[in-house]
Amino acid sequence: MSDQRPAEADSPFARAVEELRDTAFRDDLVVRQIPSPSGLAPFSLALAGDVRPEEHATDSAFGTGRFILLHDTEEPEPWGGAWRIVCFAQAPLEPEIGVDPLLAEVAWSWLIDALDSRGAQRHAESGTATKTLSTGFGALAAQGEGSQIELRASWSPRGPFRPHLEAWAELVCMLAGLPPGSEGVAVLGARRPTRG
Q1: Rounded-to-integer distance, Cα 164 and Cα 35, Å
Q2: 134: Cα separation from own chain's centroid
Q3: 29 vs 45, 91, 158, 169, CA distance in Å?
Q4: Alpha carbon 60 to chain centroid distance?
Q5: What would the pLDDT profile of 178-188 be if each residue is shown by its tens digit?
Q6: What mean pLDDT comes out for the span 118-126?
Q7: DSSP H or E run through 92
Q8: Whose C-alpha in 9, 52, 135, 168 is 20 to 30 A from the C-alpha of 177?
C-alpha cells in the first residue's frame, strides 16, 4: 500500500481503502494500484486505469486515467473537509472529433453525469478539460494528424467512496469511446497512435 504513513487497521482511511478495493470494473478497464504522489496529504491511495491495454504495456493506446483518494484529518480549507479526490483521464481521438468546439464541455458533463447517476455526493468540484491537436513531421510524419482529450478534476466527496471510483471508471471508458453497456464492443472513435 502506498499511503504516506501507515493507517490504523480500523481508521476511516483504512475503511475507505477497503471499500475501493472491493470495487468491480468492466472487463474493458484494467485498474491497478500505483504509488501515490508525495506531499498531497498524510494518507493517499492512487489507482491507474487503462482501457484494453496491450499485454505488458504501461499505458493504453485507447484511454488511460488516474484516481487518487486523499485524506487529511486537519481538513484543509480548500477541501472543505478531510477528504479529496483528484482524477485524470485522457484518450486519443480522431482529428474531426478533436476539433469539435463543445468537446471540453462534453467531457466535463460526462464526469458530472457519471457522479450524479451514482448518487456520488460531493462539493467543491473543480477541473480543466484540454483538447490537443497534433501533426507529425519528419520521422513522425507517418503518424499524420491526431487529437487527444484530457480531463483533470478534483472534488471533496461525502458519503460512500465507491460511487466516486465507479464514476471515474465510467469517464475513462467514455472518453475512449466505450459508453456504459458496451462491454465487448469495438472502441469507437479512438485513434491508435503510431509508434515511431
Answers
A1: 20
A2: 22
A3: 18, 13, 25, 8
A4: 13
A5: 888 777 655 54
A6: 97
A7: strand 83-93
A8: 135
Q: Is 22 exposed, middle or buried (0-12, 13-18, 19+ CB in 10 A)?
A: exposed
**What amino acid occupies position 26?**
R
Task: Give the residue ranges of DSSP H helices in the chain.
Answer: 12-21, 95-98, 103-117, 162-175
CA torsion sign, 163 to 171 to 129 to 68? positive
| Residues sharing a CB contact under 8 Å with residue 23, sequence separation 6 or more, in sequence order | 31, 162, 165, 166, 169
Is there a contact between 176 and 107 (Cβ–Cβ < 8 Å)?
no
- On the 0-12 / 13-18 / 19+ scale of CB atoms within 10 A, 164 is buried
Q: Are 137 and 190 a contacting pair, CB within 8 Å?
A: no
d(CA 166, CA 162): 6
In the block, residue with C-alpha cell 485522457:
90
Q: What is the pLDDT of residues 13-63, one digit of tens each?
A: 999 999 999 999 999 899 999 999 999 999 999 999 999 876 655 566 789
